[in-house]
Amino acid sequence: MAATCQVTGAIPGFGHNISHSHRRTKRRFDPNIQKKKYFVPSLRRSVTLQLSAKGIKVIDARGIESVVKDLLARGEKI
């Protein structure tokens, strides 16, 4: 599963783990991706989205209809 949010487009960030002796090794900061199912009345079906925690908050604020409309306009498969 790719660690990308379908709503916000959040992708992993990269950086370093820094040990006590200050040696650096590469690491990855993954967004908090969740699978969430929503019922969309205009499509008359449920859709499953891969969302970050911030993406869930965006849907709560704007509504699923508005977000799905933007995803479809962007050409994303739902």
Automatic annotation (TrEMBL):
<keyword id="KW-0687">Ribonucleoprotein</keyword>
<dbReference type="InterPro" id="IPR037147">
    <property type="entry name" value="Ribosomal_bL28_sf"/>
</dbReference>
<dbReference type="InterPro" id="IPR001383">
    <property type="entry name" value="Ribosomal_bL28_bact-type"/>
</dbReference>
<keyword id="KW-0689">Ribosomal protein</keyword>
<dbReference type="InterPro" id="IPR026569">
    <property type="entry name" value="Ribosomal_bL28"/>
</dbReference>
<comment type="similarity">
    <text>Belongs to the bacterial ribosomal protein bL28 family.</text>
</comment>
<dbReference type="Pfam" id="PF00830">
    <property type="entry name" value="Ribosomal_L28"/>
</dbReference>
<protein>
    <recommendedName>
        <fullName>Large ribosomal subunit protein bL28</fullName>
    </recommendedName>
</protein>
<dbReference type="GO" id="GO:0005840">
    <property type="term" value="C:ribosome"/>
</dbReference>
<dbReference type="InterPro" id="IPR034704">
    <property type="entry name" value="Ribosomal_bL28/bL31-like_sf"/>
</dbReference>
